[in-house]
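Cross-posted from the bioinformatics board.
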Amino acid sequence: MKKIINQTDDIVIQMGKGMALAHPDKIEFEEKYKIFKRKTINPKKVALISGGGSGHEPAHAGYVGTGMLDAAVAGDVFASPSSVQVYHAIKQVTGEAGCLLIVKNYSGDCMNFDTAAEMAEEDDLKVLSVYVNDDVAVKDSLYTIGRRGVAGTVLVEKIAGAAAERGDSLENVQLLAQKTIEQVKSIGVALTSCTVPAKGTPTFDLGSDEIEFGVGIHGEPGIERRKSMTSHALAVEMLDLLIGELGLTDEDEIVVMVNGLGGTPLQELYVFNHDVRAILSSKNIHVYDTLVGNYMTAIDMAGLSLTVLKLTDELKALYDAPADTIAYHK
Amino acid sequence: MKKIINQTDDIVIQMGKGMALAHPDKIEFEEKYKIFKRKTINPKKVALISGGGSGHEPAHAGYVGTGMLDAAVAGDVFASPSSVQVYHAIKQVTGEAGCLLIVKNYSGDCMNFDTAAEMAEEDDLKVLSVYVNDDVAVKDSLYTIGRRGVAGTVLVEKIAGAAAERGDSLENVQLLAQKTIEQVKSIGVALTSCTVPAKGTPTFDLGSDEIEFGVGIHGEPGIERRKSMTSHALAVEMLDLLIGELGLTDEDEIVVMVNGLGGTPLQELYVFNHDVRAILSSKNIHVYDTLVGNYMTAIDMAGLSLTVLKLTDELKALYDAPADTIAYHK
């Protein structure tokens, strides 16, 4: 394993401090509980908290800021933050308007965020949660009951964040987050494995002409091992799945996110976006906006995921609202 | 070679179209001459053009927009655009205020941009050029006489772009770009080679415990092959070189850019930034701003470069001016 790190135990703390040092106008990093916090907290609005295992950078610290999250809680690499960490994040950013937890649907995350919510409720804080499950690849897997939460989480954070920023009630922010979750689907593909620093070797092996279709963001197995294929062939198969799941027709308007998994050149993401657009255009599905980049990664994995959000007028207004975070500008 | 592409011959065109489809509010892509052009051209201000071989995305198309470039010309992967391509870019964006070419110092780029400038001058257009040579690793190399131009180019584009936007004359924009070039230095390190699509195999081989110290953005050899080292040890050596070159003292204020080379997880870039800051802090060198991300890549190379810009009051005012492009927001 070659990585630009010091001791593997220190990665999350050093990364967190390095991030706060780079963006002092946007975030603070609290080392004790590994909490990334918005520079200025507005106690009158609903607070939004997400988080999860590290290794998915810029998620979620990169989405802390105006129009998105108030705090992100970081676990160790690919491990959920503890309930105590999440509890302290809730305590630090939640005012009388309450707090919404945006949880990716992994068993460990669900358990720890739920326990933290119960702890905070005993302090008379109002806490609600949503569970993002946008990955259409598998139902139930190594770390999940039900579907996994992946890059679509960023769009849930965007839309719920806009609702919170305009002053919606906690119940309404939760409702809009839930509506977004129902309209957002993703599918990923890996060309290489990731290497978890503490392990030091690749999580799985892929032959020189193989890809993992439907891979998860921790290197979990996907739908099947396949022979390498062209960008266009990949786009056809991935879009087929997403269009089917969302029941998209030529009357629909969507947001497309082409997400690099950490080791993928931007060049390939844009080539793939070209193929995605050609296929969508042939089906008369209108693309309202496109995001291309590394939004939710799997450390150094080569590969990408494709996310489609089906818009309604209600969601579109929130999608269009300003956001100013390290990794998302609108 | 596993890449998400179609035919290798089509990569630049498909990437360009995919990029314009993703960011229709910011850029247009002209397929014939592979020119990325600002959506709205202001004929009264000095036009700024950069470009070079593809494979360094988001450079340079990602820096076309308000406060930075008016056009970026794309060659094939790691090959200079032709003089005809550059000439057409000049023709398309240059008004009576003239045009500044920001050229990375590679023999092919210099030759073709210079020829294009001569062709445009025959059409009575005013064209000046600057040549960026921020890479302190080597003097003269495979593709260069003198030092190579690397990630510091982005900061030259930022500062010259701000000067052009505020209405400076062509001569003044050139002068400010030149002052920036004199104050910006970079050094890179590779953990893996890149793979040029048309070749299909890695450009060079590195052992499992080796790094290439001083690597160029095309995989050119650097200062020497070394044993892997910690992030902190790397930061010490890289900063030593840059501080020495710039003659930095505890009275200086700098911009730091930690640039991923394409295959490097953001996690590592932030860990490295943490080490950089600890060292700078011990030397009382003040960091005015930090950029962390993939700004000037070498396709899929794992590794990073470190760039330091020594600020003056004059440059700082321009650095602070707004910029709104695909890959740079200020």
